[in-house]
Amino acid sequence: MKGGLAVALGAAAIAAAPLVASTYHVLLMLPFMAYAVVLLGLNLLFGYTGLVSFGHALFIGLGAYTGAFLTTHAKIRSLEVILLAAAVLGALVAIPVAALCVRYVKIYFGMLTLAFGMVFYTFVLKFYRLTGGDEGTPFLRPSLLGRSLDAMPKIDYLVGPYYYYSLAVLGLAALGMWRIVHSPFGLCLKTIRDNPTKAETLGIGVTRHRFYAFVISAIYAAVGGVLLGPPTGNVDPTLAYWTHSGNIVFMTLLGGFTSFFGPVVGAFVFIYLQSWVMSVVPYWRLVFGAMLAVIVIFAPDGLVGLVTRRRPAPAGRA
Amino acid sequence: MILQADGLRKLYGEFCALDGVSLAVDTGEFVSIVGPNGAGKSTLINILTGVTRPSAGKVRFKDREVGGAGPVRMARLGMARSFQLVQVFPDLTVLETLQAAVVARLGRATRLFASLARDREVQSDALEVAELFGLGDKRHTPARQLPQGDKKLLDIASAFALRPEIILLDEPTSGVSTADKTAIMDTLVTASRRIGLRAIVQVEHDMDIVFAYSDRIIALHQGKVLADGPPATILADQRVMDTVIGRKAVAPGTPSC
Fold it and tell me: Could you say which DSSP state residue B103 is in?
């Protein structure tokens, strides 16, 4: 129940932020919420199925570019339609990619996802007509629930309607994922993570479950990718670059992949810490690299693991 | 006849692990497979459970050809197994482990949004198996924290949770203290009656266990069936007793055929 209270408090704090926090900090909440959606999905694959993807920026990029393309080229502004299109497209692209990747595990799985990520990155970089190359494509302000909000000043739009829209998407995404990990399917994923040989002898289709987990995580990444677009108003290839895939793995480790909300906490800390460190020293990657090393060695269950501490840290899992 | 093997051969390159093994297991039987190291017991178990495809020969389970069918399909057809080296899910509790088996058996493994906690059938079934194996008190303990004997029991219990028709146990009492061995075997036999198991096949090194529990013993030597009969017949067969009991006298892993 303590966990439930923490989640309720966290949700209330996010909801109250625009009323109390500075605009600067409220704006930082937008990428946080977008990443939180991505990471809920990524952790289904990472924490629950035991597969570490280094290519999920592909799906973030896919979602973001879907929004940019639809608003700029197709004159479709409805965010509901964009989210739906990104989810469908994310699933469609994930199906062949997952079918190939889930035949492999460990480093081979990771490298294969990385390879697909590279292919997609090159695609968005080179297909100028469709993607605008390295300059990217504008993501025009989407309408929310059928209401065009073009007349609103940009900041008011972002810290007002768009903020709560993102929060609602995050809430629904978290609810959906909570159900998935507490379903019979979710339990089977955990058996596969712990011991695939044993899972098979119980009649659990290991490859099939990994495939489903991959596709679901891709849908989440695409949806989160859409939410990243409107705050900057532009989508560029760095979203699909492999270091971006690395960042989201970092966020997951930072918060802790062994708990449901760990990655969400990781996204929050990452975003705020990055903004703070960048304002203090020019070498934020140096600081973050050192931090990652400390976490892997001393807190393999992440920040949430430090607080909850239910069991001794497992050495070298994942 | 629930399980039948005809003329099984398995070659690993030049090495012949099995050389024409035939056997049959009938409903109601407890069959033990014995033999010195390198006799081909593990290969045989892996072929019978569909993990390994035989180089030649046939495996029939419930009148269906199942050679190399794979572990998932065998589990669904009603054949369960446990391993020589204990196999558990380290981070899952006793109850979660058994629930996973029940979920798989009921064909609910791909239910994405259903609540596991509210699935009464899965919950009660898993709890029942836990209690059957004396693991009820430890149902919320993660498998990694169980003592070795309980891990072994959990491995076997999860196979039983599939409510299979036949179960193949690869050294169910290996790595367990002598005192615990009988306890494990008694639990296993009681549980098998309770769930209506039709047959048990085990590979076992401990001859006391083998003679105490088996209806029939199959002795393997150098990839061939050396003897196949009830315990009394095996005991009277000096050739088998020398090969199997005096197994330390036989150089391990060097058969050729």
Answer: H
Q: Identify the CATH number of the domain in which residue B124 sits.
A: 3.40.50.300
- What domain count does chain B have? 1
Per the domain annotation, does B65 fall within a domain?
yes
What is the pLDDT, as a whole number, of residue B26? 94
Nearest CB to A180 within list B89, B113, B155 = B113
Q: Residue B255 falls within a domain, yes or no?
A: no
**Per-position DSSP letters for A235-296, written without gaps between them:** E-GGGGSHHHHHHHHHHHHHH-TTSSSHHHHHHHHHHHHHHHHHHH-S-HHHHHHHHHHHHH
- Nearest by CB to A182, from B116, B122, B162: name it: B116
Domain membership flag for residue B38: yes
Nearest by CB to residue A202, choosing from B91, B104, B117, is B104
Cβ–Cβ < 8 Å for A116, A58: yes
**Which residues span the domain enclosing B111?**
3-249
Q: What is the ipTM, given to two decimal places? A: 0.89
Do A183 and B114 make contact, defined as CB atoms within 8 angstroms?
A: yes
Q: Cα(A145)–Cα(A78) distance, rounded to whole angstroms? A: 7
Cα gap B30→A74, rounded to integer Å: 70
Which pLDDT score, from 0 to 100, does residue B246 have?
64
Q: Shortest Cα distance from A194 to chain B (angstroms)?
A: 5
Contact assignment for B99 to A187 by CB distance below 8 Å: yes
The C-alpha of A177 sits at a distance from chain B's nearest C-alpha, in angstroms, of 9
In the numeric block, the tokens 């990055």 are attached to A274
Chain A CA closest to residue B79: A201
- Cβ count within 10 A of residue B229: 15
Alpha-carbon torsion angle B226, B229, B230, B236, nearest 10 = -50
Residues A35 and A261: their CA atoms lie apart, in Å, by 12
Would you say residue B256 lies in a domain? no
Write the pLDDT tens digit of every residue in B119-136: 999 999 999 999 999 999
Asked whether the beta carbons of residue A198 and residue B92 sit closer than 8 angstroms, the reply is no
Q: Average pLDDT for consecutive 10-residue bins of chain A (318 residues)?
A: 85 94 95 98 96 96 97 95 98 97 92 95 90 91 93 94 97 97 97 96 95 98 98 94 94 94 95 91 87 89 82 46
Q: Which residue of B has its CA nearest to A207?
A: B72
Phi-psi region of B69 (alpha: psi -120 to 50; beta: other; left: phi over 0): alpha
- Give A176's contacts in chain B (Cβ within 8 Å): 113
Contact yes or no for B77/A201 (Cβ under 8 A) = no
pLDDT at A92: 98
Identify the closest residue of chain A to B163 by CA–CA distance. Answer: A202
DSSP state of B177: -
Phi-psi region of B65 (alpha: psi -120 to 50; beta: other; left: phi over 0): beta
The beta strand positions in A104-146, using DSSP E, are 137-138
Name the residue of chain B whose CA is nearest to A176's CA.
B113
- Select the residue from B110, B121, B144 to test the A interface by mutation, using most A Cβ atoms within 10 A: B110
Name the residue facing A184 among B87, B108, B159 (closest C-beta). Answer: B108
